[in-house]
Write a structure and sequence with these properties.
The protein is of the alpha+beta class. Helices cover 32% and strands 18% of the residues. It has one helix and three strands; from the N terminus they run βββα.
């Protein structure tokens, strides 16, 4: 399974990883590599729970264009 991850460093120099298509799937780490490892563990947990509950594994992500 390939999953797109949003990865960024916050104002406290902590790396945050989120999964846009899996609501609530968030993790962090002191380094990019640690955050990616932690989000992998979080994804496995979310997949297990969503499968157990019969929920879809992912949600849709759409792009909205905002004009001024």
């Amino acid at each position: 399974m390939q999953i797109d991850i949003r990865l960024y460093e916050n104002e406290n120099c902590i790396w945050i990883a989120t999964v846009p298509t899996m609501p609530g799937t968030v993790s962090q780490g002191d380094t990019e590599q640690e955050a990616l490892k932690n989000i992998e563990d979080a994804i496995k947990g979310v997949v297990a729970v969503r499968t157990e509950l019969g929920w879809p594994l992912t949600s849709r992500v759409v792009t909205l264009e905002i004009t001024s």
